[in-house]
Amino acid sequence: MWQWARNLWGFSRPKLSPIQGVGPSMATLGSSSGPRPVPLSYRLLDGRDNLPPVVFLHGLFSNKNIFQAGAEALAQQTGRKVLTVDARNHGESPHSPDCSYVAMSADLQALLSKLGLTPCVLIGHSMGGKTAMAFALQEPELVERLVSVDVSPLVATDIQKIFKIIPAMNSINLLGHLSDSQAFEVVDEYLKLFVKDPSIRQYLFNSLVRVNGQYVWKVNAENLWQQQNQFLESLQIQGVYRGPTLFLTSINSSFVPPSHHPKIKLLFPEAQFQTIPDTGHILHIKKPEEFMNSILSFLS
Predict the structure, then answer these.
(1) Span 206-225, pLDDT tens digits
(2) How many CA atoms lie within 13 A of 51 on its CB side?
(3) Of the residues 130, 151, 239, 273, which has the fewest C-beta atoms closer than 10 A?
């Protein structure tokens, strides 16, 4: 199990010699009329210039490594450039007190502009899906097509359950002499008390790293806890995105219930809805092959 986890969550060495870095300087971007972007950490897999690049945006408490295996597979199978990004307050990107989707959309726009990766295909899970929707509604000409993974633009009350994990995460104290597999086993046993779904626990391990002899979470958990209402609200962005759009969900998803579909169609008139059975909220962890097949079908 743990070897599979290492491959899926990005602990193995990338095969395609990715370009890694951070986005534009905070001093050169942003304006007084909107949020000031932060320089996002990213990994870019090279590909052909005549195809729209694909951009993966991770969910809450995760980072760009969660999509590493999928990004490599997509780059190899399609020949496209593929970008994975750490959102602000996650992974290697800077921390910021502003957790709004408008701010995260501004971060993304600054990075894509710097790298010359528009128009692009945006694929976002949960928080990343809402960021992708916000960006598409604000800058529709920069998005060739859009995939939202188990999240809608409306109120997501079930995310409150995810925030209850933060106190448990903060109470874990592991010394760095443990191997990764030993640390994951210890954390898994502890988190079982708070998180019953094993796929969510596996998802969280993506952000557990060893730093200076101690295992730590690569998320700004305290700030995310304080600003959690930002993630629960509906998107407060005017606009319509008329490009091809896929809402990929689990069956009976509480994040994208049928009652949301009419409002979604107003904002995204070309929206399609597709379900993957037996997945829960973390589709790309629970059913990675089915997830990737859905993406490839949509791109074709």
Answers:
(1) 898 888 888 889 999 888 88
(2) 16
(3) 239
Same domain, 51 and 120: yes
Q: Is the dihedral of CA 26, 96, 19, 143 positive or negative?
A: negative
**Distance between CA atoms of 245 and 273, rounded to whole angstroms?**
9
Instruction: Give the active site residues.
Output: 126, 222, 281
Count of structural domains within the chain: 2
Do 146 and 190 lie in one domain? The reply is no
d(CA 134, CA 100): 10
Distance CA 80, CA 194 (A): 40
Residues contacting residue 282 through CB under 8 Å, at least 6 positions apart: 59, 125, 197, 199, 200, 202, 203
In-domain check, residue 227: no
Does 229 map to a domain? no
Half-sphere exposure of 236 (CA within 13 A, CB side): 7
